């Protein structure tokens, strides 16, 4: 596919170059777990090529679904085109993708150190700090990356816009600070529609594909767009650890890409209207959304094509108000995850960021909104009645901010 095509066109046609030759129009699904071998020698060569991160030889076999699947490969090709990357590697979840990225750049490479720019998605933050993968992690602010590097640093991890407070980090500047150390950018919130980290020098653009790429809340997956050399290393980790995305999930994701630009733009427009409404609400102490704060270096304008559809807000009534609002919404579903066609509301400190150390955990009065495709006036009305319910609780004698109890902060590690 030519680089001159508009992203909307790539979203529809990417990864479909072989369909005409197959004599089909809709995406096929290959559910085979094993594949016929042409002979022992070529079968063995095929196995070795894919088990070490390569692609199936033209005259060989795909051998086994843990090594390769054509339905998954088509989705990877489409995502790579959208991200302006040479390749992409899909995994069974976003956390599986992040785990593979860390393993591929530490351990066998001799590196034992990772630099992570906070804030990060809670699962990533927890994984890096847990020691499970045998790495040491230095957490820092975006302008402290260079100072945090060590001789054994193998990776720099950054998420922008960040989860949940939508902080914007200057990708090009972080890449400059990292020097020869590869940078992986979690691009889940922005999607390839609004941001292409590889164009800014990042080595990898990672997605929890569960979110906007799939867009319908019916598939869990992760994917990393990158160069071919990095893709080989990631495919090797995937083959050894068994983290391959199921072909049905790949089919759903590939189909989801066709409407990704339309969905993101519509959701973004609704988010902007909701943000403007929230700013004037007395129940809201602060709104977190790209572009609301000062941007003296023009980072947002330079690296993004929009502000996205995620919003965070801090409630004046503290945890008590936040808790009441999540329970009182009718159109916003109280649930983790994001990026789907329906709107969601959740409390990061109690759920997605529960495993994060207290000093890096979002405040107890912060709520996160994922804006869907509903009518924006209906969504605003839903928030208004939920705020009224919280005000009613305050009038009943619960107006003071409340620190959440330990039981209130028990929740899922994964969004």
Automatic annotation (TrEMBL):
Query: Where are the membrane-spanning stretches?
Result: none
InterPro entries for the chain: Cys/Met-Metab_PyrdxlP-dep_enz (IPR000277), PyrdxlP-dep_Trfase (IPR015424), PyrdxlP-dep_Trfase_major (IPR015421), PyrdxlP-dep_Trfase_small (IPR015422)
The protein depicted here goes by the name: PLP-dependent transferase
GO MF terms, alphabetically ordered: transferase activity
Keyword match Glycoprotein: no
What cofactor does this chain's UniProt record say it requires? pyridoxal 5'-phosphate
A Pfam family for this UniProt protein?
Answer: Cys_Met_Meta_PP
The segments labelled Disordered in the record are: 394-415
Query: Which superkingdom?
Result: Bacteria
Family note? Belongs to the trans-sulfuration enzymes family.
**Key words of the record:** Pyridoxal phosphate, Transferase
